[in-house]
C-alpha cells in the first residue's frame, strides 16, 4: 500500500490538467493511513494540481475529517483553559480508539493557532511522558514556546537548560530567542544571538527579524543599522517582515529619506511581494512629517493592493488615515467602496462614525448610525457610546439624553458606560442634579471591575455637598463602595479632585475621550511583527 500511495502522489504531481485522479484509490489510501497529517498532505497535493471537482473534493473531505473528527470535536469542546485536556485523550484511548503521534502534533498546531496554549502544552507533555515519544528538536522548540506563553519566561529558560545539548539546534535556540524578545529581555536576547552566531545558526533571516523587531519595539534604532550591515555582509536577503520592521522604525524616527529608500528596495526586490500595509506605514510617516501630497500618493498605492481577507482591516486603516489628513471626501469614497465588497462589521461602522465625528460631521455620523441600527445583529455598545461622548463634549446634553432614551425605548439593555457618558454630558451642560442621579444609576447597574468617570463623580459629590444633601452623598458613596470597589488610584484621584475643584469639567471630558480612544483603537496600530515561519516552529 505504501508503494501505491507514493505512486498516487507522483501521478498527481505530474498529471495534465484534464485528467482526474482515481478517487477510489485515494479513498483507500486515506483509510489505510489513518493519520491526519498524511491525509491532509495528499488533500493539499490534489487541490494544488487538480482542477476543482466536487466529487474529488467530497471524497477527500470525507476521509480527512473522519479520521480525527470525533476526537477533534471533543478537544474543541473543552474551551476553558482551566479545564484539563488530558482526560479527553485518555478516555479516547480507553474506548479502544487510536491516536498517533502525528495526530497529537496536528492537534498541538491547531490549538496554538487559536491561542489555546495551555491545552497544547498538556498534549505535548502527554505525548512524551505517557506515550514515550522521543522529542525531536522541533518538538522541543514548540514546547519551549508553549511553556513561555503558559508559565512565563523563567520556567521556559529552566526547561531550555534541561534540554540535552544534542537537541539544542537552530529550532530550539530560535525558540529561546523568541521568548526573550517577547518579554523584551534585551541583554539575554543579544547573548542568545551571539551564541547562535558562534554555532553558525544565524545565516537565515528569521533570527535577524526577531532582533530587528526587538530593537524597533525598544527604540534601539542605532542597533538596527548595525544588524542591517551584518545581514548585508553575510548576504542574508531581506524578507517582507524585515522591510516592514525597517519602515516602521524609520517612521518612528521621521527619517523620510530612509522611508523612500526602503520602499524603492521593496519595489525592486523580486523576492518580495509588496502589499497594502507597506504603503500605509509609509503614508503614516509622510503624514507625521506634514507631507500631505506624498501621504495621499501612498494611500492611493495602498488601496490598489487591497484584496482578500485583509480588506476590512485595510479599509478601516485607510478611513483613519484619510481622517487624519482631513479629507472627508476620501473617507466617504472609501466607505462606499468597502460596503460594495460584502457585509460591513461593527468595527467598520465604529471606525466610520469615529472618523466623521473627528471631522466634525455629526450629521453624517448620525446617518451612519441609523444605517447601522437598521442592519445590526450583534449590538456593540462602543458605537452608541461614541455618539453620547460627542454630544457630551459639545454640551448637547439634550441630544445625548434623547439618544439614550431611543436606545432604551428600542428594548436594548443600557450599560453603565453609556450612562456614565451621559452623566458627563449633564455635568458639562450644568445639569448637576441629573448628572448625580445618572451616575448613581450607572454605578448601580455596573459590572464588577468597572469604574465611573472620577471627575464627573467628584463634581457630583461637590454639587451635593454644596446643597448640604448629606443623605444623597451617603447613598452615592454607599452604592459606589458596593458595586465598584474603586482601585486605590481611583480613590486618590477622587479625593484630590474634590479638594482641587478647578477644571473638573475639562478633566471629565479628557477622561471620557481617553476611554473612547482606548476602546475604539487607533490605526495604524502599533505593530509587533511575527514571522510566520518562526511562529510555526
UniProtKB/TrEMBL annotation:
InterPro entries: PPR_rpt (IPR002885), TPR-like_helical_dom_sf (IPR011990)
One Pfam family in the UniProt entry: PPR
Keywords: Repeat
GO MF term (any one): mRNA binding
Domain of life (superkingdom): Eukaryota
Residue spans of the PPR repeats: 169-203, 204-238, 380-414
GO cellular component: mitochondrion
Keyword Acyltransferase: no
NADP recorded as keyword: no
Spans annotated as Disordered: 515-537
PANTHER family according to UniProt: OS10G0501000 PROTEIN, OS12G0527900 PROTEIN
Family per similarity comment: Belongs to the PPR family. P subfamily.
Entry protein name: Pentatricopeptide repeat-containing protein
Organism: Populus alba x Populus x berolinensis
Organism lineage: Eukaryota, Viridiplantae, Streptophyta, Embryophyta, Tracheophyta
